[in-house]
Amino acid sequence: MSKSNNVYKDAYNRCLRLLDESKSLPSEPELGTLLGVSRTTVRSILSRMAETGLIAWDKRNKTVLRAPRPEDFFPEEETDSLAEIIERSFMRRLLAEGAEAGMQINELELAREIGVGTTSVREFLIRFSRFGLIEKRRNSHWVLKGFTRAFALELTEIREMFELRSAAAFAALPEDSAVWADLDRLEIEHRRLASEIATRFTAFSELDERFHRLIHRASHNRFIVDFYDVIAMIFHYHYQWNKAEERQRNEVAVQEHLAYIAALKSRDPGKVDAACRRHLKSARQTLLSSIPEGRQAQPA
Amino acid sequence: MSKSNNVYKDAYNRCLRLLDESKSLPSEPELGTLLGVSRTTVRSILSRMAETGLIAWDKRNKTVLRAPRPEDFFPEEETDSLAEIIERSFMRRLLAEGAEAGMQINELELAREIGVGTTSVREFLIRFSRFGLIEKRRNSHWVLKGFTRAFALELTEIREMFELRSAAAFAALPEDSAVWADLDRLEIEHRRLASEIATRFTAFSELDERFHRLIHRASHNRFIVDFYDVIAMIFHYHYQWNKAEERQRNEVAVQEHLAYIAALKSRDPGKVDAACRRHLKSARQTLLSSIPEGRQAQPA
DNA sequence: AAAATGTTTTTTCCCGATAAAAGACATTAC
DNA sequence: GTAATGTCTTTTATCGGGAAAAAACATTTT
Fold this sequence. Notes:
Arc Repressor Mutant, subunit A; 3 domains; 5 strands; DNA-binding; about 300 residues; three-stranded antiparallel β-sheet; homodimer; Four Helix Bundle (Hemerythrin (Met), subunit A); mainly alpha
């Protein structure tokens, strides 16, 4: 089984959701764009939908026959790409106790444990190396550098440098730039979240990422934009790992974002700088507080 | 032929050079450390050297019998790792005419052209992607972003941010830090190069890299240190590509480095900042001037 | 003739296998 | 008893192959 058909299964599930909303499906190329897959995959999906009696398919006519039932969907776990599976497995180990800095990482062992080929693990590790948590010894194993305090400090140092610069660039953008409308939309979402914070505080993390990515994009610098991948990855797993005082933390962050947004809209460089610094400082604090003091790098 | 033995061949060649200098060779583990390879490889080397009559090998005694001759060496091209071969091939294409932004990169085609497996090409592209010159479309091809003016500007923007910060950190290092001795050594090398600039100006590029890496290390930030890999790669190929006014450029740069070194030694933040800015500005100019105006990004 | 569908070709993703290289264990020499 | 050598095991680097997915080409429909 050289390659799983998760792309097909995931697109199939998403296509089922489209079925709910309309009586018939659009053309094959249109569906392809909508689902982000090729026509080949679209046709596989349509074939199966016809087989299972969800639609009647005759050339251009794709009539919906019935609403999808829960059992029509492929199981969630079959829709993940190998890369996602490996990443989750790897992060679980990394954040678990006993993952000390200096530890060796064994490709073969990882592959066996996760139940995948070595090639996929190798490719994952190469991609993952840019996060600064692992390092390759030439012709030999990878070394874990550990999710330490030092790491968090180095990460936030760059983040602060980049975000302050991006925020300044953002505020200097012309009135007619499309970002101001994006910012308005985000502001509305923030206000809604603020009013429903008691029940929806877990939705913050996704909103947080969209907000900061919008700001970073204003830098028009690919290295700054790409670096947000590192931050997003760390915060994603960090949120999963450390749920302590989540609600309280997110409530504060939403208010900081709103102040930050107001500052951006004022287009006053001084105010932007101050609001940005205030938020970054508490973000840093949050990250640091979740790393036990003892988690220090071991001497090499 | 699943794996070439370039590690062995390269270590063998380097070991031949050691032969010139002494009557006998050290122990196997010692040789291993010296050459940066495992004992397994050391023993392969010793076996061949015994076979070809270069040494007499009996357990601990490894007596040199004769000086190595040119034909004892493996050809240079057999000592390169696959990754190096692929990188060179790829960069040649990238810097050649006709490599426009937006162009697709085909793994299979690249692999066939270079004569290697697809796995190696894939791994190379993943590693290379952090340089910001290519981008992956999920489940599909890579896209060339091109060595454009925009790229050079984004690269130098980050470089300047990072180096100014590193230089400031460097100047603030305590008197007894080992870096001051390193800086003194580099200063001497710079002075020597300055006096022999007419004949040795091509040696500058290697010295330049060592100097800037020393400064970046003072940041104690892995992201800053790692980013120098991007800069070094670009400048490496840029120097190879654009030899125009090389001597003149390097002569200026050496003088700027000497002023920069003096500023660092003065430990005066203002002077350091000024000297650093002066040098970075001319480095940026050099890079930009080598990119033809016409080389602009194509609209996506 | 523009845009869809039908068909074929190419490319990507991933596995298992194999030689090179590293690493671990056992034995010998000093 | 420490540090070397000798031997055996494990891991890494790389290839070729095959299914999934994309892309290209040919044909039909509106």
